[in-house]
Every structure is written in C-alpha cells, then in structure tokens.
Amino acid sequence: MFNWIQKLMKTILSVKDLTIKLDGRSIISGLSFELHAREMLAIIGPNGAGKTVLLRTLLRMLPYQGEISWMEGARIGYVPQRVAADRQLPLSASDLLNAKARFLKLSQVDIERTASVANLTPELLNANMGILSGGQFQKVLIAVALLGQPNVILFDEPTASLDELTEERVYESLHRIKEEQGITVVLVSHDLSVVYQYATMVLCIGKGKPCFGPPKEVLTPEALEALYSAPPKYYQHLLDHHGF
Amino acid sequence: MSWLTHSSANYSIMLALLFAVAAGLVGSFALMKRMLLAGDVISHLALPGLGLAFLLKINPLIGAATTLFLGTLLIWQLQKKTGLATENVIGVVFAAALGIGAAITPSDDLVEALFGKNQATSLFSFLLGAVAVVFIIAATWKLRDRLVLTLFSPEVATATGVNVDRVNLCFLLLFSLTIVVGLRFMGSLLAGSLIILPAAIGRRLTNKMSHFLIASSVASTISVGLGLLLTAVAPKFGSGPSIVMVAALLFTMSLSKGVRRAGV
Prior knowledge:
The complex is a heterodimer. Chain A is α/β, with parallel strands linked by helices. Chain A folds into 2 domains: 2-74 and 151-241, P-loop containing nucleotide triphosphate hydrolases (Rossmann fold, 3-Layer(aba) Sandwich); 87-149, no CATH class. Chain A is 41% helix and 23% strand. In chain A, a hairpin with a 6-residue loop joins strand 8 and strand 9. Helices cover 84% and strands 0% of the residues of chain B. Chain B has helices at 2-5, 9-32, 36-44, 46-56, 60-82, 85-104, 107-115, 123-152, 154-160, 164-190, 193-205, 209-233, 239-257. In chain B, helix 5 packs across helix 10 (164-190), helix 7 packs across helix 10 (164-190) and helix 8 packs across helix 10 (164-190). Chains A and B meet through strand 5 and helix 3 of A and helix 8, helix 9 and helix 12 of B.
C-alpha cells in the first residue's frame, strides 16, 4: 500500500549511487534514495557523519560521483545551521529578503507575504541580525528560505544550540509551514524525538551502510545502536514513548 | 605645494576623490567578506609588477596590473581549493611578493612604489581612471545582492541560484581593479589600507547596511581629501602615508562615537 502511494507521488529528488570524498577521505559511499513531494525526510547520524556535507553536495557545492537529479522546476530554500550564519554583519532581515527578492525579481508583495507566513513583525524585519535571539534569528532564516515560494526546503540542524522551548516552537512553525505551503522538507537533525514526531522518511548515515525508509521501519534499537555505537536504552525509551 | 598649482593637478585630485568613493564601497563588502588579509596580499602583489616595470622602463601601472590580476586568480583558486589552509598560503604569497618586489625594484623607485606619489595626471590618464572607477562602482552595485547573499551564507546563495564561485571571482577582480587605480596615490604597501580603514570606520558608526555603505564611502572621501591637503602642506609625508594617517585618525575618533556592535 505504502509503496503504491509513493509511486503516485511526484519525485522531487533522486540520488543514485552517490559517493562523496573530501581530501581523499570517503565521507559517503554508495548512497541511493528518492524523495517525493510533500515528504519530510530526516537525515540523522552521529557528529562528523557527513550530514551537512550531504546537504551541500545536494546543492552541488562539493564534488561527487554518482547522480543527483532534482525535479525540473525545483525551487530550493536553504536554512543554514544557526551557528554557521554570520551574525556580525550590518544586516537586517529586510536587507536579506530584499537582496533575495531583487535577485529573483520578486515584488515587495512577495516579501510581505513571506514575512507574514514566517511571523516576522516589522520590528524583527528591521532589527540588526546580531541582536536577535536564537528563536528570532531562526525565524529570519526560515523567512529567507521561504521567499520565492520554494517547493523544497533543506534545513541544516535548525535548532542547534537553541533551548528546548524555542526548539519546540521552531519545529511547530516548520511543521505548520510545511502543511500550509505543501513544501517538501529535508531536515538534518540530531533530535530523534523530532524525527519520530514529524519525519515521514528517515535517512541514516554514519558507520556502515546508509539506511533509508519510514521511521518505524528504519529506526530499530539495533539500527540505532549500530549507527551511534551507543547502548539502545535511550532510543528504546523513545520507541516506547512514541508507540512504535 | 607645487603640484597643487599645476594645471593638471585638478585631474589628479578629482581622480583620487572618485577612487575614494569606489574604495569605500568595495571596502565595505571586503570587510563583510572578512577578506582583510587577502586584500592586503592583493595590494602587495602589485610590487613585483611595479619593480619589473621600473626595470623594463614600461608604464608601472601595466606591470602592477599584470601581477595583481595573476595574483588575484591565484588567491581565488586557493580560496576555492584549500579551505583552511588558505590563510597559511596567503601568508606565504604575501611575504614572497614583498620580498621579490623589494629585491627587483630599483632602490630609487622603491619608496614611490611602496608608498605612492601624488603627481600631475594627464587628461587621458584621468579619463581612463575615471572610467575604471565608474565601472567599479556600477559593477559593485549590480553585484550587491549576490554579494549580500553569498557573504551571509554561501549555501543560501547557492540554493537561491547565485553562482558563488563567480561572485567571489568578480569581487576579487573588482577589488584588484580598485587597487590598480589607487596605486599611484597610495603605493602598493598602502593601497589596501584605504579599502579597509574607511570600511572599519563605517562599521563602527552604523549597524544598517545602506548607512554602512554610505558611511564608508564618505569616510574614504574625507580621508583622501584631507590626506591630499596634508600632502600639499607637508610634501615629505607623501600622499599614501598622509591619507592613511587621516583615515587612522578618523577611525580613532569613531571609537569614541561608534555604535556598539551586537555581540561585542
């Protein structure tokens, strides 16, 4: 049943036999998966497994072997790791949105619509990025990604270094936007409870062969232990808690 | 003050002031891109070219432009390919360029090559310089959205459809062209400083992008204007050092008046 529905859905991204090597070191090898419209794919794996490298490769920013095919007409939004974006610049959210809008030849109405979807107040729009709180900064990053009505958004650990409450809010708004706008989401996350709650598919990369499938099929205690080289107690609790 | 009374001195002053606007604008983006060191290296790369030109008795600007653009391409490739190692390699390139340049430049011309000399400018040189400056300003303005997206996050820029590599190369070439125009007033040792100092002043004064670009260009123009005036009063200082001293003084003043940057 599941496979049949999947076949009916439009393929947004197809990755075949992807191998990424950096400085002669193999980061990812023989990775294949397909991403369908309106799915939320969570990429999980231990630190240093190459999750961010994979996202950058999907944008064709790094050399690779194999095949990466985006659907024709795919418009991609990217939400960088909060820590990776430069906060010291003399920039406001408005500066960033205007820069992107001018580049994509969008109107002021598009900016206003995006700001409203991302819940950006005029104060937030005009404030310097450096003085924003973690949650506010994240909102701006999401708004910049949403401008231009993308059909796919790549999130690189959107809640890294945020407190728990803010993290929950970010995921809630992310989920709301995904449902309202019908966007396909690729999410790098270290938080397995979020993965269980929101992801429709999971891709795990790390030691051994990459795994791919629906969370309850892929995230078995054994698979998690192999992935993180850690005892499965914590993950077993999560499995019980979420009823898988 | 002899050069001030010269008939073609006006061209020289006008070109210097025009250059100042371009330097302030390019410097603003250079500061945001955190390419201070790369910028310095680029200006020093002019020295071997100047030295060769003096030796071969050709126009010094041709020699300087040649080594500058070759060096720019080298830095672009290093930035692209070596990641963290870039800083190390840039240090080596910087030292090598200065060493080779100092060794081959005839000692009589070395001070002029290093620190610049204000001299009368012919109408042709003025027009050539003015065209270059207008091109720099227009191209930087056209590139500004791509630059803002790239310096904020290369990934966001790439996802938006910006060719990040090409933007970086275009900016480095504009940076080099600015240096070439500034060489005659500033010399190869100080040409990079007029790109950096006014931008640092502008950054101290404002947190808003548009104000920052304007403040940097104004600070740069004031530095050049007052610097040239200082050279006229005290020719032994030389134009490059005079302009830099004024810019440094303005920066010191901005420390007391400047806004506190977030996170600092």
